[in-house]
Amino acid sequence: MSQAAAVDDTPTLLGHPTGLFTLFFAEMWERFSYYGMRALLVLYMLKGFLAYDDGRAYGIYGAYTALVYMTPFFGGMLADRVIGQRRAVVLGGVLMALGHLTMTIETNATFFTALALLIVGNGFFKPNISTIVGSLYDGTELNRAGGFTLFYMGINLGAAMAPLLCGYIGETYGWHYGFGLATVGMLVGIAVFVAPVRITQLMIGTTALASAIAMVVVTDGVILRLVNGFVALALVVAAVVALVALNRGGLPDDAGRMEVSGSRLTLVYVGSVLVVPLFALLVQNDELAGWLLIALGGPAILYVLFEALRAEKVEREKLLVVLILMFFSLLFWAFFEQAGSSINNFTDRNVDRVFEERVIGQDEVGATVALVPTQEQLGYAHDGAPYTLDKLNAAGEGPQDWAVDGSHVGMGVGGEVVPASVFQSANPIFILLFGPVLSWLWGALGRRKIEPSTPVKFALGLLQLGLGFGVLAYGVMLSDGRGMVGMSWLLLGYLLHTTGELCLSPVGLGMVTRLSPKRMVATVMGAWFLATAFSNYLASLIAKLTGVGGEGEEAGAIPVPLDTVHVYGDVFTQIAWAAIASAVLLFVLSPFLTRWMHGEK
């Protein structure tokens, strides 16, 4: 069939196959569930029934995120050769839904089982839904790059919603409610993917409307409602576009399907269940997970290097560019992924997240004031001892009596509190705002033949990441007398991290496919994902440098903010200099790497 005929036979909207909008919402809800859990995970390990210290929580978080990026390598191979992408997506979604649901059960065994289910499920879901997106454009003249851009926006819409709903509700009303919402999100994602078109439209419309209303109604305070209102509006607009698109046709029946024998299918299903205990063991032994990543990633990278060294000149130089940029990408993500660990705890402990109603005045000295404690009380004396975060977490929702003395003058009382996990929505919201702008900028520069090369974009990404950590470190230098940092510094840091991500992330995978020989694209892509997995493990080792205790017992109580703020500031400063130095080195190497790309941008 000719390309023109293929286009004629493909129902489209805005130049894209209508099935893309089904996949948009399936992926959006899956990312909602994943990032909802991610926003809560470290805080839950510290403040929930597990009561871990910082080092233990960071180690488990690092092993979990690393293994999450490792399993897609194997899930993609099984889908390609055994069960097909469509079945793999459904299997992955079911396993992840079970994982989120299992998180609501408070035992050590179920906690690690839940993480293992999420790791295995993500391995099947993540690579294969993207593959199905690509298959919608095979044999057509439709805009594949634009389709993946829309799909990327769906990922970030789900990631933006997750902290605003799962994170807010989990921290405010109870961890289990947050994990329960993540379960519902995953189930909706599966249902959208497998349901007939009319039912899919109904689910997209009702869940989008319900979520948009919830984001505005469930929160308190003007600031949060403005932020949530923006994301809610984006969700409603996306839902309307999807409803119009699906009215012209849904996901093609043959997209991602493969004929497979029942015995092979059963073998994959049974095998997926049997490896769950193995991953549960790995995720609770982060050192073991690190050795596994080295054992898998090391040979893969050495094999690519071996193939490069024995290849002819052009192929060799292209592969060397991939390996060099793979190293810089590893550094980028090791620093960037502090967001879910050390930056998350920094936000919880040292960022002033309260818009107080009033402050204690001189005229109240000697009186007893009844107040509901918030972050504003951290570091002040109460009952003869400094008020710390673990005491705040145990205080409940009722008021406490505070005997006011001269040291309390200026202490904030009441007001709107922004939960720490909510700030993890900053990155995806900034992507929604600035992603199209940067995409337009690259296009405009490309038309003028001055678009930066891929190595230069990587260097720009590292530079902005380093500046973002520099902003956080500078905010620490300007912290107040209690060791609290203004939230504007955190948001500016996240903004620079996001613009850095937009310079590096969208071009990385495309660079791998362009520069790798066709005979080994899958192998190089696997090595790229394994390097990303290792970067998440390395991120946990960096995060451990900020460890200051835990909240489960008195011996591990979190110190007052003044005692923790410079611990974070020192590590953020080191990261800033490391990222900036890496960017400078890559800028120096860029002319050579660009030449070795032999015309590829």
**Rg from Cα:** 25 Å
Question: In this structure, how is the largest beta sheet organized?
Answer: 2 strands, antiparallel
Count the domains.
3
> Strand arrangement, largest sheet?
1-2
What fold name goes in the CATH topology slot of the largest domain?
Answer: Growth Hormone, Chain: A
Number of E-type strands: 12
CATH 2nd-level architecture of the largest domain? Up-down Bundle
CATH C-level name of the largest domain: Mainly Alpha
Structure, described:
With 601 residues, the chain is mainly alpha-helical. It has 19 helices and twelve strands. The protein has a two-stranded antiparallel ribbon with strand order 1-2. Strands 3-12 form a two-stranded parallel sheet. A two-stranded antiparallel ribbon has the order 4-11. α3 runs antiparallel to α9, α5 runs antiparallel to α6 and α12 (313-336) packs parallel to α18 (521-543). The model is unreliable at 1-8 and 551-555 (pLDDT under 50).
Summary, kept brief:
Helix content is 71%, strand content 5%. By secondary structure, the protein is mostly helical.
Secondary structure blueprint with pairings:
Layout: H1 3-9, E1 12-13, E2 16-17, H2 19-47, H3 54-102, H4 108-135, H5 144-173, H6 175-194, H7 197-217, H8 222-246, H9 262-274, H10 276-284, H11 286-310, H12 313-336, H13 342-350, E3 351-352, E4 354-355, E5 358-359, E6 368-371, E7 381-382, E8 385-386, H14 389-394, E9 400-403, E10 412-413, E11 416-417, H15 426-447, H16 454-477, E12 485-486, H17 487-515, H18 521-543, H19 561-596
Parallel strand pairs: 3-12
Antiparallel strand pairs: 1-2, 4-11, 5-10, 6-9, 7-8
